[in-house]
Structure formats: structure tokens, C-alpha cells
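note to self: the first set is below, dont mix up w the second
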Amino acid sequence: MKRERFVNGIDVIRLHDTIDQIRDYPEIGKFEFRATNQWVDGTHCRGTVQHFYGAIHEDTDRPPQTVSYTHLRAHETVLDLVCRLLLEKKKKNPEYHPPNKLHH
């Protein structure tokens, strides 16, 4: 049976290859996002993610990604902010796929 390449916009073959690489070399699976949050006024906040450490290197080549929001739910953390920023980027560019920088 032929495996579908994309499911819900996810490159499944690339995902499985990445999982295999992380299984073989767990250090490449460690990620740390750099995020800042700025209170603007009232319940208006602005969050920015620019740099991150992942796949065994510091990524500093990307422009900042910023999202503004008017409330933060009590359960939300900086990781939720990262998810919001990634979703915002995907909305602005539906063809966006992060580069595959995993080398073994």
C-alpha cells in the first residue's frame, strides 16, 4: 500500500524520517525557543519569537515573528505563544514548511 506523502498539510514521510533520526541521535530533538512578551495596554500583549536552539545548533538567521493578542488564558505559557506564532506564520504563508536542517 502506498503511503500518502501529505496528510493535513504534514509531510508524513519527512516526519517519519525525522523521528528515525531523533531515535538514532536524541540530541537533535532538543529544542529551546527564545520568546519575549511585551504588555502594550490593558489586556493587549505582543509576543515575539526570533531565535531558537534546535537540531544541535543555534538558529539566529530568521527575522522576528510577532503576534499581538488581547488576552492570555490562565493556562497558557510561552509554549502556547510559540504555537500561536507558528500558526500565524502558517496563515500568512500556507506553503511554509520549515527547512530540514537535520544532519546525521
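second set (the one i keep forgetting abt)
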Amino acid sequence: MDGPSSCSPLSGGFSSGQPGTIDGWSHEFNKPGVYHYVCSPHCGSGMRGSITVSSSTDEPDHIIIALPTSFTPGVKRVNLGDVVKWTGLESGFHNIIQSAEYGACEARLCPGYA
């Protein structure tokens, strides 16, 4: 089921804001850890991803492309202090919000999605 939802980011989590057609959005990761995220309008279609932040990786670029109902790559490793840029958001009604867990589209986390 696609369409607007009342899914909201984790308290203190990152968010690109309300769903819409935006040209791109970036976030700098300053703490090591695993960060899960979803596109709230396409949460029920499986549009989600995960970023692991560590002290060193060999991946030179940090671009994630939004497709109609998914992100590619869905899982990304980055260095502490690196910036990740999401592109392709203008291709649909998208946003990026940090979620509690990978695939967190259950009704308890994103009311309006069953």
C-alpha cells in the first residue's frame, strides 16, 4: 500500500522532512553504529535501507539512489564523519526518516500501515 502515512522518525533521529519531490538530501554521520531508515510513503512496499558507520571502509562514494519503491544500495558502509547523499528523490513522493530497525514498517512504528 503506497500513499501518505503518519510514520515519524525516531526521537532525535535524522529526517529529510515531509514526503515530497526533493532533488536530493544529505546527512553527515558522526557516531559509529547501524542506522536504519525508511521512506514513509513507500514503507509498506519495502522501501528501506541500512547504513553502518565505522572508522574505516574502502567505499569511495556515498550515494544512495531512490527508485520508485526501493533504495539502491539498500545497505551501505561509511566512515565516521562521512556524508551520505540520497538522490533520485524527485522521481516520486519520497522522504528519508531514521527507523528503529531495518524494515520497520509495522503498524507499531508507522501507524497507517498494516
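remember for set 2: Residues 1-114 form one domain.
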